[in-house]
Amino acid sequence: MSSVAHEHTSLAVETGFDVERIRNDFPILKRLIRGKPLVYLDNAATSQKPQVVIDALVEYYQTENSNIHRGVHFLSELATQAYEDVRVKAQRFINASQSREIVFVRGATEAINLVASSFGRANVKEGDEVLISGMEHHSNIVPWQLLCDQRGAHLRVIPITDAGEIRLEEYERLLTDRTKIVALAHVSNALGTVNPIRQMIQMAHRKGIPVLVDGAQGIPHFRVDVRDLNCDFYAFSSHKMFGPTGVGILYGKQEMLEAMPPYQGGGDMIRSVSFERTTFHDIPYRFEAGTPNIADGIAFGATLDYLNKLDWQAVSGHEHALLEHATEAVSTIRELRIIGTAKEKAGVVSFVMDEVHPHDIGTILDQEGIAIRTGHHCAQPVMNRFGIPATARASFAFYNTHEEVDRLVWGIQKVVEVFK
Amino acid sequence: MSDLRSLYQEIILDHNKNPRNFKKLTDATKTVEGFNPLCGDHYMLYLKVEEGVIKDIAFQGSGCAISKASASIMTTILKEKTKAEAERLFETFHKLVTGELAGEVNFEELGKLAAFAGVSEFPVRVKCASLPWHAMRSALDEKAETVSTE
Question: I need a surface site. Which of A197, A233, A337, A347 has the fewest CB within 10 A?
Answer without folding.
Answer: A337
